[in-house]
């Protein structure tokens, strides 16, 4: 039996927008290599450059500041390639970064032979500005700092402008992984004060396997991948023309903020409804600014693995912790860094909404999650307190 599925895992990947699908298909009908001088090549080049304009517009920079990559992971690695270029004396990155940032930081530190240090976060998952200031004071002439704009697990937004002011006050460079914020909340490179950012196509309704490394101002970029000199020598390799075309269309659509308000209404409805039935439920980072589409929730005595299976059987796709390393439910380094206790973190589930999410999807999730809580109490005797009416 194949019942109707409800997809609530947009922070892992968003369903392809129909308009992006059309753009991908149309581009695949062409045959051009964007570096060729003939008409076919020029047509492909035009698709790439139109997409570059859309991506640039989404984050408020000039098109020349955008370098297309194979996704967010590669763009994060390209960002850290700039460590040596900037003569960085120290690398600092927040304790809640995506593993692609943590790994890129470690590699860049080893390559440039500079120390790599984690910046602690508070109980909400926000970078501690006091700790950052202390670290910057001991970070030498030119620190290289990376702090994500929005977290993939909790949706928490970082105070980027304050962070940028501190970093620049210490003659440092600030990179932000903007993979999760793009298309979900306002993000403008210049007003946020960041020097470079990472974007990913598939998180905003574009295709998988395409992303961008973006500079606030056009400048030299040290390449990680060399060869044919594509992307002005910043990232060699024949351009993924169809992927880039789809990414561009998704970026244009992502600029529409109406969707954000709708997602927030639905997310808030989900949280109110769960709280009414299960008073012990906790919504992580909910008392500070967070993405409008994300709810990371936990309750004592639940097991994320069991919950995910029950929800999957009920036709719901959500995730526990970071879905990027999915297949296994590992402890969340984000909840760990926030000091969430093991019992609560062990049952944490992330629900993330997007352009296709409906009220019916939210009702379905709430009913299934509450049922899973009731089942956990019946079978293991553990699980959170239920409101009286729910038994
Ligand atoms: N950064 C963040 C915050 C992410 O959530 C992800 C993917 O989940 C990535 C980077 C990696 O992006 P990509 O899948 O395009 O490599």
Please give a handful of descriptors for the protein shown:
391 residues; alpha/beta; Aspartate Aminotransferase, domain 1; Aspartate Aminotransferase, domain 2; 2 domains; 7-stranded mixed beta sheet; 3-stranded antiparallel beta sheet; 13 helices; 12 strands; 12% strand; globular; binds pyridoxal-5'-phosphate
Q: How would you sum up this structure in a few lines?
A:
The model has no long low-confidence stretch (mean pLDDT 93). The chain contains 13 helices and 12 strands. The protein is 41% helix and 12% strand.
CATH H-level superfamily of the largest domain: Type I PLP-dependent aspartate aminotransferase-like (Major domain)
- DSSP helical segment count: 13
Average predicted local confidence, pLDDT: 93
Q: State the order of secondary-structure elements, H for helix, E for strand.
A: EHHEHEHEHEHEHEEHHEEHEHHEH
What is the number of E strands?
Answer: 12
DSSP strand content = 5-15%
Largest sheet: 7 strands, mixed
Radius of gyration: 22 Å
* CATH fold-level topology of the largest domain: Aspartate Aminotransferase, domain 2
Describe this structure in words.
With 391 residues, this protein is α/β, with parallel strands linked by helices. The protein folds into 2 domains: 6-14 and 257-380, Aspartate Aminotransferase, domain 1 (Alpha-Beta Complex); 18-254, Aspartate Aminotransferase, domain 2 (3-Layer(aba) Sandwich), CATH 3.40.640.10. It is built from 13 helices and 12 strands. The strands form 3 sheets. Strands 2-8-7-6-5-3-4 form a 7-stranded mixed sheet, with helices on both faces. Helix 1 runs antiparallel to helix 8 and helix 2 (39-59) packs parallel to helix 8. The two termini are 31 Å apart. Bound molecules: pyridoxal-5'-phosphate. Pyridoxal-5'-phosphate is lined by residues 71-73, 98, 100, 148, 152, 177, 179-180, 200, 202, 211, 324.
């Amino acid at each position: 039996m194949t019942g109707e599925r409800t997809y609530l895992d947009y922070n892992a990947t968003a369903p392809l927008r129909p308009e992006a699908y059309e753009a991908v298909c149309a581009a695949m009908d062409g045959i051009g290599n964007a570096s060729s001088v003939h008409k076919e090549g020029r047509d492909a080049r035009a698709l790439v450059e139109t997409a570059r304009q859309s991506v640039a517009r989404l984050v408020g920079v000039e098109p020349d500041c955008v370098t297309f990559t194979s996704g967010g992971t590669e763009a994060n690695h390209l960002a850290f390639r700039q460590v040596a270029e900037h003569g960085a004396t120290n690398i600092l990155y927040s304790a809640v970064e995506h593993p692609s940032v943590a790994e890129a930081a470690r590699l860049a530190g080893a390559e440039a032979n500079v120390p790599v240090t984690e910046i602690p976060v508070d109980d909400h998952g926000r970078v501690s500005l006091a700790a950052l200031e202390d670290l910057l004071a001991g970070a030498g002439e030119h620190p290289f700092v990376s702090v994500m704009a929005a977290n993939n697990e909790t949706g928490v937004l970082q105070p980027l402008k304050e962070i940028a002011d501190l970093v620049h006050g210490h003659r440092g460079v600030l990179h932000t992984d903007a993979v999760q914020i793009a298309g979900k909340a306002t993000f403008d490179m210049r007003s946020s004060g960041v020097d470079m950012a990472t974007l990913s196509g598939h998180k905003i309704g574009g295709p998988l396997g395409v992303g961008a490394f973006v500079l606030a101002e056009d400048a030299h970029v040290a390449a990680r991948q060399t060869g044919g000199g594509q992307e002005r020598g910043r990232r060699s390799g024949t351009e993924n023309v169809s992927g880039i075309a789809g990414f561009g269309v998704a970026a244009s659509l992502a600029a529409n903020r109406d969707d954000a308000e709708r997602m927030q209404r639905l997310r808030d409805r989900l949280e109110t409804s769960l709280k009414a039935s299960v008073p012990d439920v906790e919504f992580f980072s909910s008392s500070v600014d967070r993405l409008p589409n994300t709810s990371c929730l936990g309750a004592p005595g639940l097991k994320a693995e069991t919950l995910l299976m029950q929800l999957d059987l009920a036709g719901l796709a959500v995730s526990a912790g970071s879905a990027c390393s999915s297949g296994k439910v590992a402890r969340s380094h984000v909840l760990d860094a926030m000091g969430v206790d093991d019992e609560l973190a062990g049952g944490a589930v992330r629900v993330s909404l997007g352009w296709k999410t409906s009220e019916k999807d939210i009702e379905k999730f709430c009913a299934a999650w509450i049922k899973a809580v009731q089942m956990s109490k019946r079978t293991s005797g553990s699980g959170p307190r239920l409101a009286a009416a729910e038994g």
